Amino acid sequence: MTRVDFLLHESAVGYAIFKVVHQQDSVGLHLKEVQKAGQDLSKFGKMVQLVNFAPWRNAADALENINLISEGILPDYLQSNLELNLPQSKKSKIILGVADKNLAGSIKAAFPGVECETGDTSEVVADLLRGIRLHAAKLLKGLQEGDVERAQLGLGHAYSRGKVKFNVHKNDNHIIRAIATLDNLDKGINLFSQKVREWYGWHFPELFNVVSDNLTYSRLALFIGDKSTLSEDKLHEIAALVNDDEEKAQEIITKAKISMGRELSEVDMSNISTFAGKVVKLAEYRRTLYSYLVDKMSTVAPNLAALIGEVVAARLIQKAGSLTNLSKYPASTLQILGAEKALFRALKTKGNTPKFGLIYHSSYIGRASQKDKGRISRYLANKCSIASRIDNFAEQPSKKFGDALRRQVEDRLEFYATGKKPTKNADAMNQAMADILADGQSLAIDTEMIDAPLPQNATTPKKEKKSKDKKDKKEKKRKHSDVNGQVEVEADGDKKKKKKKKHADE
């Protein structure tokens, strides 16, 4: 069992360093008596002793230190406290118990004479730190009742606000929520429209044969209401609901007069009209939400949206979790994104793996022939991967690259159909960059990150060495072939001699 010398307790009120006076046995920790002793302050206070308590200087200092600790970075304030309070021993290392394993690695790197143990590596450390958190209000000196709870609440709110405010995926989250809401609205509108047809069909069953669109049917049911009130005076208003088709509007009025539907009471008609109005409002909100999604995609991922469409691009971002995650995926993963069940089923049964996932909903794969669907899906996934990386790392949003990539996919489809030679990728990208510069935009290239060319004298010796090595290898091969050639000739001569002897004997 490892001996623990000190414990580090980072809390909402500051840093505290405790010295372990009495350490439990790892086997004894499982006993009920030992577990109850850890909950009793009078007994637990004899096991640890406070060495130093360094409270935060202000709220901003507390938030800064907690942010660094959450990322596994050793703050300067904590490092100075450890230097002052931990003894330096050249013979043996000091064992320090820490809660966070990433912070433990940073402390070990900064203090070579300190060995860190965490709750994952030592049950004793986990139990002692648990007891310190339980009795922190009494063990830490200079605190009043309720100070720890108030500090935890304030620091927790500040930490959460900072994480939400500076989240790099804050724009992606709106896209993910919008496309999820859009899918749910589509399911709900289809279901509710079917119920409107079933309900209003008792009163006017012939209307469905004239108008099959769900939204138009709901609008007509809301406008017509009782079919007996329908007359020629409402012809223009009905025509406006059916895309200005006066013939269809006249047909609706004619069939309303000879309809075989049953009469409905005012209460029933009122409920049907209310339900139809709700469906119409849902459909209008769905249209507004789609416009919002298009505008959001033009800001967050304009090239990917220009290449494959706003809805499919948003579904790819939703499936990946964020645009950053999508840009990290290789093209092979992006190609089958959304077809994970089919992929693992094919791997399990040793069958054919799927060729496409969410990108199947794009228009390109549907336009390709059956034999070319796999090839165009691989090519489209490659271009989507390029577009997502441009959108993720570009500083100024622009869809010029997306338009160029879309033209490349169109050319590839034409190449599969007619054999016309497509545009090269380098030419397409150069043309896109030229278009961006022509519009007065900047590519925002970081010139400091471009690799400088190597000096000429640094490359020449390597070439000479390579040429010498190649010559030596060729000479060795020639010598080896000459030796092999002599052996083969001699062997062939012996065989010929043997054959001649056999013929002579005969």
From TrEMBL:
Its main location: nucleus. GO terms for cellular component: box C/D methylation guide snoRNP complex; small-subunit processome. It comes from the Eukaryota. SUPFAM superfamilies: Nop domain (SSF89124). Pfam families: Nop, NOP5NT. Gene3D superfamilies: 1.10.287.4070, Nop domain. It is found in: Nucleus, Nucleolus. Residues 496-506 have a biased composition (Basic residues). PROSITE patterns: NOP (PS51358). Residues 300-418 form the Nop domain. This is Nucleolar protein 56. It comes from Daldinia eschscholtzii. The gene is NOP56.
